Amino acid sequence: MNWDLFIVAIMAGAANWAFRALPILARTDQIATGGWLERFLSATGPAAVATLFTASILPALSPDLLRLLPVITGTLAVLATYFARRSVVLATLAGALVHGVTVWLVA
Amino acid sequence: MPPTTPHFRDGLLASLPIVIGYVPISFSFGVAATRAGFSVFDAFALSLIIYAGASQFLALALLASGAPVLVAAFTLIAMNLRHLLYGPALMREAGSDATRRHAWAWAWGLTDEVFGQALGSLARGQRFSEAYMFGLGIGAYAAWVSGTVAGALVGGGALDAWPALSAGLGFLLPALFLALLLSISSRRQLPVIVVAGVATVVGTLAVSATTGILLGMLAGAVRGLLRR
Fold first, then answer.
1. Residue A85's domain spans which residues?
2. How far apart (Å, rounded) are the C-alpha atoms in residues B77 and B127?
3. Would you call A11 and B116 a contact, using CB atoms and an 8 Å cutoff?
């Protein structure tokens, strides 16, 4: 066991648990119902998911069309499948499948 | 007919796209950890104790480059500050009567993807239940830890011969986030989503990916304050 790694892991893990659990246990979502905090928190969810999507797709964007094409086809597959079936699971799998097939075709 | 309360197995089933997305990423983490000179047990312990993908990769980079322990720890802690917002946002969507008796345990599993999936299910009209949260969280956690161990045991180059498969697996998380975004989007939330996306791009290009994530979430949430 690498002890430096273990100490870092314990500190980061304890902070992760605190960040994830304590705001729920402290009922911070019920403070100031109807006020600014409620508007802030109701926007947090969509803002977080939009941010995570942007952050995850950014490294895949490239001026090289051959590298960009699988991203475009995969994204279109997610959009088409979601609007056709309204299923997060199917849309995710379709996006990954079409992305992988496009990489295989352009290779 | 009012929606029924989802059970543990419903949560497990809902974790499937996360599991499929987590396995290749955690597998890559296991490979990276052993390549950086850490043992299989070290890789396993990092995934078990930290359980936050990007910061685990960063932990490897920091420690392998000889960064001081406290600097490495506080960098990782700062990177995960965004998780402070997830619980309140989720519980607000769940409603004021939602039970949180076991939140001290299931909230450990509230990663980016688990949060997104849970929020999406609530936005689609599903009721909140702690059993569902346990199922969702345990499925994802098990996939993350077991994928790490598999990667550390197998070592590097396992997917090198299958570039299309590797690319498809790598696209799972962006695809999942996009599908989740579609499931929770509404015309009212559109300005929040646009501001969050733009701020993420600006923060990432100007400073770093971590800054981009923090800036995007905060800017989107602040944009929500301006809503009437």
1. 61-107
2. 32
3. no
